[in-house]
Amino acid sequence: MAGPPASATETALALQPLGPIQLRVAVICLLAQIFDGFDLSSIGMAAPALSQAWHLPGAAFANTFVMSSVGIMAGALISGPAGDRLGRKPVLLASLVLLMLSSFACAQATTIPMLAALRFVTGLGIGALMPASVALASDYLPDHYRASAVMFIFTGAPLGGFLGGQLVAQLLPTHGWTVIFNIGGILPALLIPFMLFWLPESPRLLLKRGRLTPRTLALLHRLNIEATEPDQAVDVATGNPVTGLFRDNLAPTTVLVWILYFANLLSMYLIAYWLPTVLHMIGLTPADSVFAASLRDAGPLVFIFLIAPLSHRFTPQSVIAVSLAAGIVAIGTVGLATLSYTALLATIFVVGCCTTGAMTGINGMTAALYPARVRNTGMGWALGIGRLGGIIGPWLGGVLLGLGWPPRQIFLFACITAAIATICAVLLRLRASPIWSTRQSALRSS
Question: Which CATH class is domain 8-445?
Answer without folding.
Answer: mainly alpha
